[in-house]
Amino acid sequence: MEWIADISIRDIIDIGIVSYVIYKLILIVRGTRAIQLLKGIFVVVVAWALSSWFKLSTLQWMMNQMFTFGLVGVAIIFQPELRRALEQLGRGKLFSRSTAEQDHEISVRINEVLKAINYLSRRKIGALIVFERETGLSDYIESGIAIESRISSELLINIFIPNTPLHDGAVIMRKAQLMAAGCYLPLSENPFISKELGTRHRAAIGLSEVSDAVCVIVSEETGQVSIAMNGHILRDIKDDVLLAKLIEELTPKSKNKEKNSIWKWRKR
User: Fold this and answer.
1) Torsion of the alpha carbons at 244, 248, 249 and 250, rounded to the nearest 10
2) Which of 88, 122, 221, 255 ranks highest by number of CB atoms within 10 Å?
3) In the predicted model, what is the mean pLDDT of residues 130-143?
4) pLDDT averaged over the chain?
5) pLDDT of residue 89
6) Which of 58, 90, 122 represents a domain boundary (last residue)?
7) Are 262 and 244 spatial neighbours (Cβ–Cβ below 8 Å)?
8) What CA–CA distance (Å, rounded) separates 223 from 119?
9) Residue 52 phi, psi dihedral angles, 5° rounding
10) Using CA atoms, how far apart are residues 62 and 261, in angstroms rounded to an integer?
């Protein structure tokens, strides 16, 4: 236990700062595809450790080559996350992100989306709105037209007005930002999907099969609103059900808090 006596206040402060920085960086990476890449790197490190332990020379040589050129590869692969971290550091947001701010941000996002969906549904204007969650959707965002704007109901409505350049395709949202419009999504190949469903619905189901995204669809034939998650679709849902589902999926809360939120939305 003599080593404990060697720990100074400076060491504790040093460890605390480094731990906090790592924690904030994990929060930045958590909402992107980088988390899957980190898991892949972890698997490579475990393979290298096992090759060293069991003295598998060929595998160990291959792992060493990967580590040699891996640093450059990591910098390239994580370029978007590194840029976002530096931007947040420059804006002073890396160390100041409260839960209250996040809850308010999500509330505003849901409110704006619901207003747009109600408008589009009443006029039978087709729409496909995607909420990114843990699995990053950068590949699909890059297939569309970059917007990177604050979410507003007016912007969403204008995007989906027929015969406009961006109306055909999906809108993808990342947190409080509308990242891109006119995005192409993978169509589901599930043979059991109803033949009544069109391309928008199949694209929503297809994306939900390969990610944890939440997709909201407005039918241009009937004006019905549907929601797709985890490879399944719930069709013709009413406002209250859609509201409750978005709150549940985007802001996991206790039942009492959820009920209070729903009541607050109804009062609006």
Assistant:
1) 90
2) 88
3) 90
4) 81
5) 63
6) 90
7) yes
8) 10
9) -70, -40
10) 54
